[in-house]
Amino acid sequence: xxxxxxxxxxxxxxxxxxxxxxxxxxxxxxxxxxxxxxxxxxxxxxxxxxxxxxxxxxxxxxxxxxxxxxxxxxxxxxxxxxxxxxxxxxxxxxxxxxxxxxxxxxxxxxxxxxxxxxxxxxxxxxxxxxxxxxxxxxxxxxxxxxxxxxxxxxxxxxxxxxxxxxxxxxxxxxxxxxxxxxxxxxxxxxxxxxxxxxxxxxxxxxxxxxxxxxxxxxxxxxxxxxxxxxxxxxxxxxxxxxxxxxxxxxxxxxxxxxxxxxxxxxxxxxxxxxxxxxxxxxxxxxxxxxxxxxxxxxxxxxxxxxxxxxxxxxxxxxxxxxxxxxxxxxxxxxxxxxxxxxxxxxxxxxxxxxxxxxxxxxxx
Length: 364
Description:
- By secondary structure, this protein is of the alpha+beta class.
- It has two domains: 7-142 and 149-156, no CATH class; 195-330 and 345-362, no CATH class.
- Helices cover 54% and strands 15% of the residues.
- Helix 3 (41-71) packs antiparallel against helix 7 (158-216).
- The relative contact order is 0.10.
- Mean pLDDT is 79; it is low at 140-158 and 331-342.
């Protein structure tokens, strides 16, 4: 087994690596940056690994084919030294470029991902070499020691260079288009679920606001305190909430397939289904979101029971009842025939203003 280094294929590996890197990351990917920002970070990282594998793998195949054409390749292992050195030097050049860029930006930082990149360069390059079958050289120039002819090396890789770059760019675009389509469909379903849940929660909040406003304008204590102690589900505008959720789901090209209310937690759960035909076939994605009422002041929720927030405490029972009981006890022990004059009703001191909001507790 010959373990030789072929420097022209090594230089070719480095050149192809830089060229394809510039083509991808300066020409192809920048126009797709808005879709990439909307994608899931994990999916984007996986896509980066795929692009690197395709790019370096094709370069490794080209270099191995170059070595076989000009120098012969009796076994695939003979190309290992050339591929490893080429990948290492190419990685080193890119790391040096990153070093100068970081230095220009005013900071230097080591990242273990750099070592992972080295393993990718070497590993994917060797994988690409596996696609080249061993065979004798197709030129007799290498039988003369130390003879290097620009004419003999010219065109060794040109046969594969143009179609390889074309396939590489096409594969990259295909991966990003497929990824962008799936991501957009998922985000559309998530957006529809979030909007539907918030819309249903807003209807519920507005209904409670109306009850609170009516209680504040009550002329006597009985009407004011009649709100506390009642269930959040009492007078629940279920149909109106479901209608609002369906309306907002339809605005986002989706439909509501599940709707439920948890009065104990003042929460609304909505499940939607989004239809997408970007790939030529109708695909359905479902998403679920939950919104809840956040009681900051005014009203409060005690596990499904409405109360007033007074001096920071959730009051769910009327003090008027206790006062009446005490008054009855006192009247039993007295023979006074004089009726006490009714006092005018006043709102309890410490009652806070209305402040209830709708928040997403589980986004789609």
